[in-house]
Amino acid sequence: MRKSSNLFLFMTVMVAGLNATAISIDWSGGYRVEFNDVNSPTLDSSNPDPKTYGLQYLFLNSKIVASDGINIVARFDIMGSQTPGYENSQLGSLVGGSGIGTDPHVTAQNQESTGVNVSQLYLNANTEYGSLIAGRAPFEFGLGMTHNAGLGPFDHWYDTRDGVAYRFFVDNISFMPMLSRVSQRDYGRGVTINDETFVFEYKNKDNGAEAGVVQQIRKSSVDSNDGTAVVTGSTAVSSWSTKTINLYLGRSWESFKFKMEASFLTGETGLQVAGENININSYALAAELLWPALNDDKWEYGLKMGYASGDNPTTTVYEGYQFDRNYDVAMLLFNHRMGSADFLTTGMTHTNAGLTVGNSADDESIGNAMYFAPTAKYAWNDKLDLRTTLVYAQLVTNPTLTLDTSKDLGTELDIELIYKPRERVIWSNGIGVLFPGQAWKDGASSFENGTNFGFSTKSAITF
User: Fold this and answer.
1) pLDDT-based confidence at residue 265 (cuts at 50, 70, 90)
2) Which residue from 87, 200, 255, 463 puts its CA 20 to 30 A from 244's CA?
3) Model confidence over 406-436: pLDDT tens digits?
4) Does residue 10 sit in helix, strand or coil?
5) Dihedrals φ, ψ of 360, to 5°?
6) Lowest-confidence segment of 145-159, 229-243, 284-298, 382-396 by average pLDDT
7) What is the three-class DSSP state of 281?
8) Is residue 13 very low, low, confident or very high in pLDDT (cuts 50, 70, 90)?
9) Per-residue model confidence (pLDDT) at position 4
10) What is the Cα–Cα distance from 350 to 359, expressed in whole angstroms?
């Protein structure tokens, strides 16, 4: 903690010194506080294991204009999460502290202090032909179903890359090659995990047309292949080598907007289980439709629908796909862990084995499911909106191989009241009720699938 405080003090002094030399520094940021309550994440009324928690979080963005067209950008996360498994996120700090300190908390007179994390730091140099980016920078593409920088006011996660990229611009077209280092265990050679990424995008503001493709190739050495941490009982025998290709398409008219993204993940994990090689072959699709309010109309309608392939446990190929955790379609479903088994086959994204459905944050993601989620928003006045969402979902595969199983995940109804008292301030209050389907019972396992409901209130201020 002391090192983080010293870092913040150093940055403050440095910024003050730069101001004295008349170098331009722009600051922006945001503050978020929220409260969440989920009544029965186990879907079992006799043992509901409810969870109730509050979070708060502050981030500061600084842009130092070192010279014409040359900027140094940094992001500081204040009151970040200290819970193991959530450290590298923008989840925020638990209201009341983490409870992991050594002092007796029943006699405490002050709260546990938290530090400052630097989640972004990169150089951005604009030239005649494009823009150079070098350092730890955010990365987002399309709908954010795979690559999501967490730019929303209530996003808890983010994607960043340590690398070098150059974005070329030609009229409405941009293309960017990027080399990035995901991990380096130490200073030695051959202990790295690297990404080779190429992004192509087309945006025409005149007719609202958008299109893009991103290809990411991830490779590791044998020594740096740590996939055994997410594949139980596996052994690393060779290097990790996977390819992710995302395709994006969008079009906007005055009365209708459409966006769609597809993702394909293939490759070799370099892992073996019981002497069998584990390969990856998964895919997903997401689409968003919007009918905006026109003229004096107070109603706006939308639709989200998608598909994420699920893993078949009888094969040595892993077919499961997980959306980015920032991509939400419902308040409870695909957002909070629920039920008595990992029906969504998203266990590999939950890195802390000590967290369960009853003591984890909203760290669930869309996987092994297809969903259909229409939305209607009513503009009560210029400051108050009422949004209603109805979600229906089904499993794609049976991950437990239990007899007499169903694929029906059920239906969820969410109602959200959004209040914007002034510019850059938003206060959201929502309730969600999930009516679980028979899939949660897992056939002959006869698990409980009782109704679950939750409540959230959250506020965000950006500046």
Assistant:
1) very high
2) 87
3) 999 999 999 999 999 999 999 999 999 999 9
4) helix
5) -100, 160
6) 229-243
7) strand
8) very low
9) 45
10) 12
- In angstroms, the CA 458 to CA 463 distance is 17
Task: Render pLDDT for 62-90 as a digit per residue (tens, 0 to 9).
Answer: 999 988 889 999 999 998 888 888 888 99
Output the six-digit token pair for 411.
């239906």
The whole-angstrom separation of Cα 206 and Cα 172 is 10
- Structural tokens at position 11: 């940055």
What is the rounded distance in angstroms from the CA atom of residue 105 to the CA atom of residue 431? 32
Per DSSP (E only), the strands in 99-141 are: 116-126, 130-138
Q: 258 - beta bridge partners?
A: 251, 289
Phi, psi of 406 (to 5 degrees): -115, 160
Report the 3 state secondary structure along the chain. Answer: CHHHHHHHHHHHHHHHHHHHCCCEEEEEEEEEEEEEEECCCCCCCCCCCCEEEEEEEEEEEEEEEEECCEEEEEEEEECCCCCCCCCCCCCCEECCCCCCCCCCHHHCCCCCCCCEEEEEEEEEEECCCEEEEEEEEECCCCCCCCCCCCCCCCCCCCCEEEEEEEEEEECCEEEEEEEEEEEECCCCCCCEEEEEEEEEEEEECCCCEEEEEEEEEEEECCCCCCHHHCCCCCEECCCCEEEEEEEEEEEECCCCEEEEEEEEEEEEEEEEECCEEEEEEEEEEEEEEEECCCCCCCEEEEEEEEEECCCCCCCCEECCCECCCCCCCCCCCCCCCCCCCCCCCCHHHCCCCCCCCCCCCCCCCCECEEEEEEEEEEECCCCEEEEEEEEEEEECCCCCCCCCCCCEEEEEEEEEEEECCCCCEEEEEEEEEEEECHHHHCHHHCCCCCCEEEEEEEEEEEC
CA distances from 5 to 10, 13, 97, 356 (A): 9, 12, 18, 32
Q: Token pair of 429, please?
A: 């209050």
Residue 189 bridge partners (DSSP):
none
pLDDT > 90 in the chain, percent: 72
Q: Could you tell me the two tokens for 255?
A: 């009365």
